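Lab meeting, action items carried over

1. Structure of the two-component assembly. Owner: GW. Status: complete.
Input record:
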Amino acid sequence: MAISALHRIPGGFSRETWSFDARWREYGREVHRGFVLRRDPDASLLVTDRDVEFRVMDAVAVHGVPVPKMYWLENDGSALDRPFFVMERIDGCETHPSKVLMDPRFFSARDRLAQEFVDILVRIHAFDWRAGGLASLGVPASEAGCAIGEIQKWEAVVDRDSLEPQPVLRAAFRWLRRNLPPPAQRIVLVHADYRTGNFLCNSEGEIKGVLDWEMTHLGDPMEDIAWSCMRPWRWLGDEKIGGLMERADFFRSYQQAGGFAIAADAVRFWEVLGNVKFAAILLTGARSFCDGRTRNPLMALVGRNVARLELEIMDLMGV
Amino acid sequence: MRPTGLESIRAIQAALADIIVPELTSAFAQDAAGAVQMLLESLAGDWDTAAEDLRRDNEALSVLLASSRDALDRALPGNKSLASTVTDIENRLREIQDDSLTLSSLASRNHALGALLERILVAFDDLTGQSGYEKVDGLRRDIYVHLRQVATRGWSFWDVSSFRERMIAVRSAAAEDDARGAVR
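Predicted assembly:
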């Protein structure tokens, strides 16, 4: 097998992402394919399980959720210093919001892209995770337990990684406990980072691959709805969700496509928690940098941006 | 001393943009250079004002904490948990007197005051709905006004994208407040 054009791809901050071409002979004929390798980093914005990401992407593919085909998972770090997995490379697509939302080639595709974005989310939430063998992700004790479980998870990250006092985040955790949403309508597979910037699409507005499943888990579908709505993903700076559509259109479209009923209060709760979670992720990056586990300038940068999330959290809490 | 720190940061940014980045062929290296540019922009955003911001922040926090100590003292006399918070505020405010204007000293003091503020907000939260709460509610609001002011300072990479209109609104409201203050 010959490997060529190996190069590192920007982004993918929880794991290193590498692209390469491979050429080999199979049944007498030459095969040439592009692959993406995701390798565990020395330090990251997130501490996640590559095995989960691999298994979930493999499982949802058969349910009509567009994801790159997963090929190999190597949990032993001896071959490439650290564990990794290899998946299909989808060519001819863009993922960065600066292209997807701001490149004129994509302007006419925005309506279709918005609809695809919604339809795929509905498919993820309809996925039968028990039949798909994903109960091992950890089933919340009850529909009511989804929210409190996520609060505890992210509060532990803030406890672990804060370098300074966090009065706003601490107040937010208390607000969240006082304003728990109704129990999840159903426990579903939650992507947990579903947003513009985490899918590969072409200029016809077709989403060819949903990426970044590092945080996926079982939980409340409203968590994904709210995460998609968060201001940091409104890349055009206005109020449009993901730079794609108005909030009311997003909710209506999701429900019409067979998604769950959306309650504004529940979305507000999950949006506060989403911003807190994102702040926690940035604190992890800053901690990695300050502890000397990485020299990635992005990790230094992210810690200086928590303030805007605090502003958003206070807006959402109404304080 | 010229060039100043800020002028030097601008020189580094210009060198990155005009000399180094055009020579980079890898998208990954270009992306890393972009992160460095933004980090420099963030540093430039508060280079001149960092010490003054921290000094004012510490002053405001000290005032808020002293007022909170008095309000908690009045709110629920005899409450042991609140009494210990009041004593801790008292002690810490005394301990952390420091006139140094180095950024590390100012930041260290800010850290200590911020930790107290966290406790105050928790104490205020715990009082919600109890008699005496009305005595601290105004202060609680003042604390959030302060936290909002701090949260809108400096430069964030989101200010040119996701938070663009939000920050324009924040800054125009602040400018109106300043103008009203000037008229008065």
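2. GW to write a short summary for the group page. Key points so far: The CA atoms of residues 95 and 200 of chain A lie 5 Å apart. The interface with chain B takes residues 7-11, 97, 164-168, 170-171, 174, 231-239, 296-298, 300-301, 304-305, 307-308, 310-312, 314, 319 of chain A (CB under 8 Å).
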